[in-house]
Specification:
Elements (H helix, E strand, L loop, with lengths): L1 H23 L18 H7 L4 E12 L2 E7 L2 E8 L1 E2 L7 H8 L10 E8 L4 E14 L4 E8 L2 E3 L2 E3 L6 E21 L8 E12 L2 E5 L8 E4 L3 E14 L3 E18 L6 E18 L1
Antiparallel strand pairs: 1-5, 1-16, 2-3, 2-16, 3-7, 4-6, 5-6, 6-10, 7-8, 7-9, 10-11, 10-12, 11-14, 12-13, 14-15, 15-16
């Protein structure tokens, strides 16, 4: 599964990069101010010199989710479980995992990750294509209200979500592929040799999860495949700090809404739908070119 996930996410990343490189050929070009010979770049000059340049970053995230109602439907069932709690599933950042997973090329897409390719349209406006690879896991053994029918039997009252009844997660990716518009505000936090900026952003995108669902109550086997399941919209903000001229660190907070009307739950065209809000915190390191 790890190999499939890695190849799939790499395919998404390569596709994303191709789309942006194609758009670059259509973008207008503009000369950037050049500082006098031998003079150190000020924060304002550095922002101006980075205008109309590309950047890419890689990072990691943690996320939280609101409770949600999940509706399941198929030929032999139509039921809803309500006020369901879910959580993320970030890989533990132990020293062993940092080198064995987080920084190991063959395993780098296993944690909850972020990738972004951005075009600096002007000195304070950027447009970006993002892949936010989060994870969502329905909590097991919680008791929730249920209504509807399963194999013709009416369902009501409370249902304990045991593994024998249902497992439901987007752990091979609650993958949000989005376009973001970003406004930047230069700030002098660390002196003129270390330019920094605050930023605010807003974006919309598609959600392509790889949902792992086992409907034990119906005798279904596990379903696990990528599928365009819905859409997302969100806003955010954070801080970016430059180092070594063309490299930068970034930390950000995002808040968003996810609507998934078409989650595949089995190979028999069974489906689920849900919507929820999320909070996401990320750190990343990037390069301008």
């Amino acid at each position: 599964m790890k190999t499939t996930l890695t190849l799939s996410l790499r395919a998404v990343a390569l596709c994303s990069a191709s789309l942006f490189l194609a758009s670059a050929s259509l973008a207008q070009t503009a000369s950037s101010p050049t500082p006098s010979a031998g003079a150190a770049l000020t924060a304002a000059e550095k922002d101006a010199s980075s205008a109309r340049k590309w950047s890419i970053y890689w990072g990691w995230n943690r996320s939280t989710y609101s409770n949600s109602d999940i509706h399941f439907s198929g030929a032999d069932h139509d039921f809803t479980i309500r006020d369901v709690a879910g959580a993320d599933m970030q890989t533990d950042a132990t020293w062993a995992n940092v080198f064995a997973i987080y920084l190991r090329p063959s395993e780098i897409t296993i944690p909850q990750t972020n990738m972004r390719l951005a075009y600096q349209y002007s000195k304070d406006i950027a447009v970006a294509l993002n892949l936010d690879h989060m994870k969502y896991v329905m909590g097991q053994n919680q008791s929730v209200p249920i209504s509807g029918q399963i194999k013709g039997v009416n369902q009501s009252g409370q249902q304990v979500l045991t593994e024998q009844f249902l497992t439901y997660e987007h752990t091979d990716g609650l993958n949000i592929i989005s376009i973001e518009l970003e406004k930047q505000y230069p700030v002098d936090l660390f002196g003129p040799k270390v330019p920094s900026r605050l930023f605010a952003l807003a974006g919309v995108g598609l959600v392509v999860p790889k949902s792992n669902v086992t409907m034990g109550v119906l005798g279904r086997t596990r379903n696990d495949e990528f599928h365009l399941a819905g859409y997302s919209a969100g806003v955010g903000g954070g801080l970016e700090v430059d180092f070594c001229k063309d490299f930068f660190f970034r930390t950000a907070y995002k808040a968003g809404y996810v609507n998934l009307p078409d989650v595949r739950t089995s190979s028999k065209d069974d489906k689920a739908s849900q919507s929820f809000t999320y909070n996401e915190w990320l750190i990343a390191a990037g390069w301008r070119f």
